[in-house]
Amino acid sequence: MSPVLFELLIRSIWETVLMTGASGIISLVFGLPLGLALVATDRGGIAESLWVNRILGAIINGFRSVPFIILLVALIPVTRLIVGTSIGTWAAIVPLSIAATPYYARIAEVSLREVDHGLIEAARAMGGNRWTIIREVLVPEALPGIVAGFTVTLVTLVGASAMAGAIGAGGLGDLAIRYGYQRFETSVMVAVVVVLIVLVCGIQWIGDRLVARLDHRD
Amino acid sequence: MGAWLSEVGGPLSSGPPSHLSGTETEMNQHVTAEIGDPVAVEPAGSQDVVRLVDLKRRFGATAALDGVSLTVKKGEILGIIGRSGAGKSTLIRCLNGLERPDSGAVFIEGREIGRLGERELQPLRRRIGMVFQHFNLLSAKTVEENVALPLKIEGRPRAERTARAAELLQLVGLSEKAKAYPASLSGGQKQRVGIARALAARPALLLSDEATSALDPETTRSILALLKDINSRLGLTILLITHEMEVIRSIADRVAVIDAGRIVEEGAVWQVFADPKSEITRSLLGGIRPQLPPEIASRLAKGEGAEIILRIDVAGEAARRPLLSELSADVPGTFRLVHGGIDHVQQQPVGTLFVAVPGADAAHLARVTTFLKDRHARVEVLGHVAGPV
Prior knowledge:
Chain A contains 9 helices and no strands. Chain A is mainly alpha-helical and 218 residues long. Chain B is 32% helix and 26% strand.
């Protein structure tokens, strides 16, 4: 591999890490509260409101059913509004975040729903309000699942970011298609695949370690 | 009426005559120790921590509570017993507003809580500790953090929380487990943590929702002993629900029997044990009150027989008399103890004896039963048996 291609590889790694990391954090910041809202407003939840629950659920399902490549193009006006441009790595973070947020919200919802109802009842019996229940019970008790779900989301984002090449975002997937596939640079293809494997394994490993440290359940 | 048991000897002498008479009121004295803040303002003369008036709650077609009225006095342990589905859980959950009754009123320390909104209920719930069947400890928090949680909810500073948690863990004998996570504890230890947590905010009332039902018999005894100890040392009022009479017998002062959403019987534990009025109470008592062994019961016949089997129930004063020796002095004949004994409930003797008397003579039997009834024993003729049993 030529020094030029190597430099390109390094830059692509950084672009992928940036896209994955930034949209991952944004999906965590928005997805976790959304997941909480889904659990809280559901039947028997701490802020039961079935209308809100249905509307939220419908919006999340709507975003989740649009294929990412369509979302990428359809969101161009939104991206331009937020980032100022519709092309490049930063521009790709907008559709990636918007796709990952509802995805992560559903994953967080599953973990939060699994928290034993008896624990919520115990907190209520102690005189806790909703915020107490969220802060002291729901989130800490679901934390292993929340972290494991975040790991899954990050890995999914690594894959999704490959498609962001379509709007000139760069990244490893883009490199593999343009150089490895279209220009028959097998060494680039192999290098990209190896880097992606290492990246995904690394994310998964860190996630698993974190979950093991956080999990104090039986 | 003296100690007739010791004179009869045999298996009955295992229950020594009690030196105590009168009901156990020591518990009710105000032993205000480190736990138990001065109780909030109450209407003058009211010592009722809880008063329930005609509570009703339906779930669909079934009435979980069908007109329950009940009071819990300050410092007492009231046990509510019933089969599963009798309405116990609904009842206890009405006391801290986790459940809203359809009608009726709940007074906690003289204050009606039915009209209170969720936000107003929160400070009130801090006056009521609750212990759960499945402990409900937070797995992500250490033992110490679990115990301190009610104080954190109250907004107390960290130093105070830690000190209080240490104090309570010492009380329940788990000081060395402060930094452990609940998953590493045994069931009994988890429940001790649950009790410590329930006491953290210095409640005026402790609710126990089947606290020992998930524990083995030995652990159950130690948890019950702890609750009794807390009640007598701290003067804390306890309301517990259970489906086990053994729990009631071990620690309760008074018992209320609930069935199909109604209180069917209520009274001092020893009195209810001695003279259960309702069928459901008798059935719940079945396991721990003496019964005629089935091999004898199956031989009972209505007509003639060599011997008649009597069931004699005695309690309190009647059980302290030398009843059998008085009987044999007054009425000639042999009296044979077949089964039964004297138990002590709340330091009161409560006994059931199955006695065989010669069965040929109706007049003789009448003398026997009259003699016993005159001495406040309840007598029931169970039937004849052909030969010695």
